[in-house]
Amino acid sequence: MSMADLGGEKKSVVVIGGGVAGSLVAKTLQNEANVSLIDEKEYFEITWASLRSMVEPAFAKRSVISHSEYLPCAKIISSAAVDITDTDVLTKQGSQISYDYLVVATGHTQNGAWTKTDKISQYQAEYEKIKAANSILIVGGGPTGVELAAEIAADFPAKKVTLVHRGSRLLEFIGESASKKALNWLTSKKVEVILGQSVDVNSPSDGVYRTSDGKTVDADCHFLCIGTPFGSAWLKETILKDSLDSRGRVMVDSNLRIKGHNNIFAIGDITDVPELKQGYLAQEHAKVAAKNITSLIKGVEDDHKLAVYKPATKALAIVSLGRKDAVAQFPCLSLAGRIPGMIKSGDLFVGKTRKGLGLKPDV
Ligand SMILES: Cc1cc2nc3c(=O)[nH]c(=O)nc-3n(C[C@H](O)[C@H](O)[C@H](O)COP(=O)(O)OP(=O)(O)OC[C@H]3O[C@@H](n4cnc5c(N)ncnc54)[C@H](O)[C@@H]3O)c2cc1C
Asked: Is residue 15's pLDDT more than 60?
């Protein structure tokens, strides 16, 4: 039974950040409370579908979702949050939104496209850039760089793709045997993989890029697939300034509340939860935070009755390799080819993620 059903005044829940974690917690609580979602973008993006949208821009119609589509009962504020006090959140555009419960879910910093239309145009431009190039340089051999190289190799097999990675192996966040399988797949598709080197993308001369070891790479264009910083720098000017660790992550307790703040939660990539930063785990954080806020709204006072988040201890990841194949890291083994590909690479979990937000899998 909701507070409104009980005749009580609904509490105000403010969620900062409409990414994987923030979108889900806002969606889950929108009928329980007066939910406001503050996001600098007007949309939620299913990140694990983003590389497919670069080779097939129409794919983004399902994976880039306006917040208003899944939040009919919440207030959406399209602006960056710039300050937090004990009672309110202030935005760049000058709004002041009061909260009873606050959820900070600002993950990683984003760049560019603030509207859904802009984002879809960005994918169209990236597609044109890929289509027009004969040779493409990809910088970064984490999941983003590997998935992009694989998407291009699968859809445009005639293009020369070179992937340069600073580390000694691809996909360092998972096991060595999975890395090797990804490397073998890429090289079998004629992608040239250069490991242990960096490349300065700002100084190509006539389409020639130079790596740290002096090797040259000819490419008509490049894509940077390196990580972005945590979206927490702005918290240094707020009441949460002492809640950041040395890496800029927000320190949380086992209930996902920010240490020392009983009504403020932090979830997703921005937290110091000791586990890999992955979207499916951010979704689990969102479920725990939503459960705990519901309990607190209902008047639960005993902390022992709150849900506890247990960090994931075993690596579990699937990196798609084009439309049919993938490499998967399971707790005790890694697997490459069609079987893991059948789990992820066709729809990239877009239908499943849309359903989780209460939307139809298709548009
Ligand atoms: C290309 C790519 C592929 C990935 N593939 C996978 C995968 O296959 N499987 C998997 O499990 N994980 C995957 N991940 C990781 C996954 O996307 C992240 O773990 C997940 O997005 C974290 O969710 P989050 O809500 O914490 O942060 P994010 O999704 O980063 O969302 C942060 C939100 O906060 C907003 N924001 C930031 N600062 C402010 C501010 N000051 N005010 C207001 N809003 C703000 C941003 O606009 C954004 O909406 C992938 C990531 C990328 C980039």
From this structure: yes
**Cα gap 102→80, rounded to integer Å:** 15
Q: What is the mean pLDDT of residues 288-301?
A: 97
Task: Give the residue, by CA position, lying nearest to ligand 1 atom 3.
Answer: 48
Contact 173, 179 (CB under 8 A): no
Q: Which amino acid is residue 268, in one-letter code?
A: G
Asked if 72 contacts 359 with a C-beta cutoff of 8 angstroms, the reply is no
278 lines ligand 1 (CB under 6 A): yes
User: Of all helices (H) and strands (E), which one includes residue 90?
Assistant: strand 88-91
Tokens of 294: 């519901």
Helices (H), the chain: 20-29, 50-55, 60-63, 67-70, 116-132, 143-155, 176-188, 279-297, 338-344, 350-356
Phi–psi pair at 60, nearest 5 degrees: -70, -15
At 78-110, the pLDDT tens digits run 999 999 999 999 999 999 999 999 999 999 988
